[in-house]
Design a protein that fits this description.
Length: 243
């Protein structure tokens, strides 16, 4: 895994030497293609296995009583999710730009998140504060949506029973600030440094890709993502995006 110091060295090399810039860019591109190809090649047979198992379950409902059936279905679903996140992570810094209203995007996310809580009969109170004057934004709409959904998903997973989640947005001059605050379990101080690292998870069934992917996407937009958390009290993620 490359650390910030290696990335800084690599960027410096690329700035100083045109040949190095070309070779490193080519290597990075090859690396991305390799990861995409592997993810794609595994995803195809996995989809076939998953469909076959679903057909078996429909035709022979008694299989659900087999001791490992439920676990197998969950493992397959986890692999599917992992491959999906891996492929989004891999393409995280390639943006498809369009001009769109960020307040519409956030309002839609708030509505679908509220509906998903409702459907799950959750004991979480969700509120949002999204003003009307955020203006037009140029960026990758689908990837940004992924960022906010990831942060909301983490907030939800941090609250085992009753709790609150707030999604708030604001704009000061040319900086857009989006905050996602939860009253969940919080993050222990010793973990806070590592939560943005790929594959770092402290959850059962976690992939550890959500935050690293979100950070990649936000930084590709020239923005930043930061966290403040108190164990046992809750967590606040702040995304800043230049508009
Ligand atoms: N809102 C939050 N409250 C508490 N812990 C969090 C929160 N968001 C992220 N974390 C911690 O950061 C880790 C990494 O998050 P993420 O990259 O989304 O991966 P995953 O959710 O798959 O574990 C989580 O396992 C969790 O320990
Ligand atoms: Mg997550």
């Amino acid at each position: 895994m490359m650390h910030n110091i290696d990335i800084n060295k690599m960027n410096q090399l690329m700035e100083e030497n045109e040949d190095a810039r070309q070779i490193i860019s080519q290597l990075l591109e090859n690396h991305q293609i390799t990861v995409s190809t592997i993810a794609h090649e595994i995803r195809n047979p996995l989809t076939l296995i998953s469909s076959a198992l679903q057909i078996i379950q429909v035709q022979h409902p008694e299989v659900t009583e087999f001791s490992h059936w439920k676990q197998t279905m969950e493992d397959i679903d986890f692999m599917r999710q992992l491959l999906e996140e891996l492929s989004t992570f891999n393409n995280g810094n390639t943006l498809n730009y369009s001009v769109f209203s960020i307040e519409h995007l956030l309002k839609n996310i708030a509505i679908s998140f509220a509906i998903s809580l409702d459907e799950a009969d959750s004991d979480i109170e969700f509120s949002s504060s999204i003003p009307d004057n955020l203006g037009k934004f140029t960026g990758d709409k689908i990837k940004l949506e992924e960022v906010f959904l990831n942060l909301l998903k983490n907030a939800r997973e941090a609250i085992p029973g009753h709790g609150t989640i707030l999604l708030a947005a604001g704009r000061k001059k040319d900086i857009l600030t989006i905050k996602i605050k939860d009253s969940g379990c919080g993050i222990p101080t010793e973990n806070i440094e590592s939560i943005f690292e790929p594959f770092k998870t402290y959850k059962q069934g976690g992939t550890g890709l959500g935050l690293s992917l979100s950070q990649r996407i936000v930084e590709a937009h020239g923005g930043s993502i930061s966290v403040a958390s108190t164990e046992g009290k809750g967590t606040l993620f702040t995304v800043k995006l230049p508009i």
